[in-house]
Amino acid sequence: MTGAQHSYPTQAVVLAGGQGSRLRPYTDDRPKPMVEIPGTGTPIIGHQLNWLADEGVTDVVISCGHLAEVLQEWLDHAQLPLRVTTVVETEPLGRGGGLKYAAGSLPRPDEPWYATNGDIWTRFPLREMAAFHHERDAEATLALARPRIPWGAVETDAFGHVLDFIEAPPSPYLINAGVYVFSAAFTDLLPVRGDHERMTFPRLARERRLAGYPLPHGAYWRAIDTAKDLAEAAKELSAQGR
């Protein structure tokens, strides 16, 4: 695939408006993406912006909500590797509506774009995902992760004998990893208000215009939802020397 045939997205939206109630008390005085992973000295949003810049993104629109001023103040003083614009929802628009509202501030509306949830801590080659999206001529492509089940599993035979105990095995199901590639035309398909995962995605799936990109083997991915996730992320990153 040559550059003349295909160019990678250089713009992205980060959804950072959630209240993060399960992360309290960390989110009592800051939005969820401003929570720091212990030992890194950088909030989640900072890691995301660095990753996006490393993947060729030059412009990011951050959709803010809960305690937006805290995030905006950090952005004003941070040394950022790309250009950042913030938009603030004056009323709840839902995930799809918020995505559409933020996409309206992208600098190149006639070009494809990435999007990511603001509470995702991941590293994988976004350009490969964009190539996957392009090859399938999709309107939208979502990254798919296979998380580990947080409990130990028990393996049995058909008769009911216990054969083995497996600690935190990978889930048999893929889940939406909260990272996307969208065509330029996708913006018009988003609802003004509501959830794109309930409204837009099912329609695209029926029309075979929605693709799913499995994260490469060994790629790091974690959703930061609870204090336990913060501790686990810190432990994992330390083990990887990051």
Automatic annotation (TrEMBL):
SUPFAM superfamilies: Nucleotide-diphospho-sugar transferases (SSF53448)
A Pfam entry, by short name: NTP_transferase
Highest taxon above the source species: Bacteria
Gene3D superfamilies per the UniProt record, alphabetical: Spore Coat Polysaccharide Biosynthesis Protein SpsA, Chain A (3.90.550.10)
TM stretches of this protein: none
Matching CDD domains: NTP_transferase
Domain (Nucleotidyl transferase) ranges: 12-238
Name the UniProt record assigns to this protein: Guanyltransferase
